[in-house]
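Summary for the steering committee. One of the milestones for this cycle was to obtain a three-dimensional model of the protein with pyridoxal-5'-phosphate bound, which we needed before selecting residues for the alanine scan. The sequence and ligand used are listed below.
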Amino acid sequence: MDNSILNSTLNEYFRKFPKIQLILQDEDVKKLIDKYSYNVVKAQLEEILSKEKEKIKINLRDNIILEDNFFKIKHFAFLLKDYFNNFSFSLKRVINGTGVVVHTNLGRSILPKTAVENVSKISSSYSNLEFNLEEGMRGKRYSHVEILLKRILNCETAIVVNNNAAAVFMALNTFAAGIKKEVIVSRGELVEIGGSFRIPDIMKASGAQLIEVGTTNKTKINDYEAKINENTTLLLKVHHSNFKMTGFVHEVNSKELVEIGEKYNIPVMEDLGSGSFIKFERFGLPKEPTAQEVINAGIDIVTFSGDKLLGGPQAGIIAGKKEYVDLIAKNPLNRAFRIDKMTLAALEAVLFEYLDINNAIKNIPTLRMLSQNILEIKKRGLKLLNKVKKLESAYKTMYIFTIIEDFSIVGGGAMPDYEMKTYCLSVTHKFFAAEKLSEIFRSLQIPIIGKIKDGKFLIDLRTVLDNDINDIIGNFIKVAQILS
Ligand SMILES: *Cc1c(COP(=O)(O)O)cnc(C)c1O
């Protein structure tokens, strides 16, 4: 078809479209308007109409004749209904079948029930966020968690900000911004955490002047001492988090760094990264320094995340000596990085669990998943297998389901390389490769994010919650319908 004929045919087709106002008066469309408002439905209809016009162009080019039904009001009403039926928010719940417990892309830690309830309560009413009830005047927003942090960590004081990156940034800015102020850090600790958090970049952006000491694999006490001068304002230690150094290595530990700091009267800061409150060795996991240990070693300022091994909401905790932490609190950046009330409500509830370590392990999902008994995981796997096996016969699909052994990892930049034994539901299909299955499971209403190993699509049961099981089954029914 040449272009002029094509254009005139197109216009002819477009003229056949029902008027927008008529479509909006359709009974089914009116129901949508009641639910989603006139403007929202009209805007969506306009988008649908322009998409349908595009479709007509393609069809014409391919010489496909369009049926008259295409131009009926009911056709567009159907498309609108279909759109709103499948409408959901962009940020949605997913099922974590990756086995990565603290998965940054999937939202890191999930909150315990008490925290969720507290967020709901505090955010749906007014609160004493910055109001001192005893004195009837302005109070501090940190006061609600400061008491708990002091009790758990045995520190002099603590504040909380938006996240750990902000905590590090603020601390560096407070002590080391400006000319002739130097921060000493080991070359072995100039780490990149991921998501473009690089210690040297953060230091530069904070205005601190970075003085590197030692080598990549070895840094000794006298490496620090050799660089200390009257401009040195801070000694910084950074936890490796997401990598491990082995072999011919040496680093100055927290206690030794504290001794150097005391000798030269310079504050010492440690960015702990994950910052756990419990000793993970008790579950047979590798040793991670706890926040208590670091405080106990005498570090002046300790910073760590709220949503990594701690298992709480996104937050950055700054704990330590009053004379230093108070200075950070006074930094105007604190206003920009301040923690919001919902996070604070969640954090207080999570910290409360830590007052009794057994409660924490039982109630905080991150801790529960990390300390889970392998037999419990297997049991959950067999329960799921049983249910999907029934589906297999009901839908006469082409699947093979089995339970296989595999390894989960901690994530969140903690305990790199360490693999925990786990069980996975393995899904294979007669015609579809694992990549295709993975794509299908991701596209479901409650997406399941799994992993692919040896050509199999795996759902790791360590990170699957008990109440995910029924939704997985619901998902499977949909997949079975798609694929059978
Ligand atoms: C994760 C991490 C950070 C960043 O913490 P966020 O809470 O993600 O801002 C900083 N330092 C270290 C060592 C980390 O592991």
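Key point for the committee: Residues 163-165, 168, 193, 197, 238-239, 241, 271, 273-274, 305, 316, 413 surround pyridoxal-5'-phosphate (CB under 6 Å).
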